[in-house]
Amino acid sequence: MLGIDRRAARYAWTVALTVLLLCLVYLVRRTLFIFVLALLFAYLLSPLVNLLDRALPSNRTRGLALGLAYIIFVGLVVLVGTQIGSRVVAQAASLGQKFPEMVQSWLQASRQATAPADSLRAQILDKAKAEIAARSGDILETLSRAGLRALTAAGDIVYVVIVPILGFFFLKDGHVIRAHILDLVDDGQRRALVDDVLADVHLLLARYMRALVLLSLATFTAYSIGFSIMRVPYAVLLAVLAGMLEFIPMIGPLTAGVLIVVVGAVSGAPVVAMVIFVLAYRMFQDYILSPRLMQQGVKLHPLLVIFGVFAGGELAGIAGSFLSVPVLALARVMYVRIRKARVAAALAPLERAR
User: Are 114 and 78 within 8 A, CB to CB?
Assistant: First the structure.
């Protein structure tokens, strides 16, 4: 009557609500990140909880299995912290004090062993070494931030206390949350679609967290053993750094490799052997270990992963890079399920006609 198209108005209202929701998500992104960490932490402990739940007598609640799982987890954290954490902190402090002197000594030794400056190779090497010396402060800050500060992050009450508490509720009431989500949808094809999506998301997150933890542990073990055999200074610190950065797709392993080579070069370690070892391990992990661990969970094209990592980094820094792959994988799961549902709905009349 007034010349307003109801359909267009409904679409405009939907778009406005979607934009408003996205803005709200961005404003509370820190709180959402804590809840996402708690959810991933729950998936990390879920296999242990399920194992204890099956092993314990059946005439009791799931809370006993949850309590035992948390006790075991805290015990492992304390054991690892006392055995490895103290060594890492000591090595990080030592590296922070000696790193500028090691860079200067490395530059002086390199100048004495370098060919005449008129050769192109010598000029390139001098330029590269001068750049490393100029950036030594940034490198040291990165090492300190990624290593020592990450280990001393235990003082952050939010991540140490709130995340495990929220993870406990996710583990305890996860099935209730899932039932409430399904209750929001009417019975029929849509409810079946939401049920399938939730099942796929559950499987995806479980496999992804298991793969990340195992890849991180494998990296730490391989690097610590390899660097110890090669007598690399700060071997435990570099291994822990590489293991932690394994949680950041693509950028993390690349950053770890560069930092390891730089620290090895200025500390007098066998750089060529270190480079060969790191490259060989990356090929083994990227082409053999990682595909086996990920299995059918995360199927993303490398270009999409690269885009997601950089886009996530621009939006939310390290947290965005860390969450980029699971977010893209979740989007893919939803797209595949919705597409299958639409194809099945289109083929249903044909099947009935037969």
Answer: no
- Among residues 136, 272, 295, the alpha carbon closest in space to that of 207 is found at 295
Cβ-contact 244, 146 below 8 angstroms: yes
Q: How much of the chain, in percent, has pLDDT values that exceed 90?
A: 9
The CA-CA-CA angle for residues 248, 40, 334, to 5°, reads 90
Q: Which of 212, 227, 258 is nearest to 87 (CA)?
A: 227
Residue 21, judged by CB atoms within 10 A of its CB (0-12, 13-18, 19+), counts as exposed
Model confidence at 353, pLDDT cuts 50, 70, 90, reads: low
pLDDT in tens, 126-171: 555 555 555 555 555 555 454 444 444 444 555 677 888 899 999 8
Task: Please name which of 244, 251, 236, 239 lies closest in space to residue 313, comparing C-alpha atoms.
Answer: 251
pTM here?
0.75
Where in the chain are the domains?
35-92+114-184
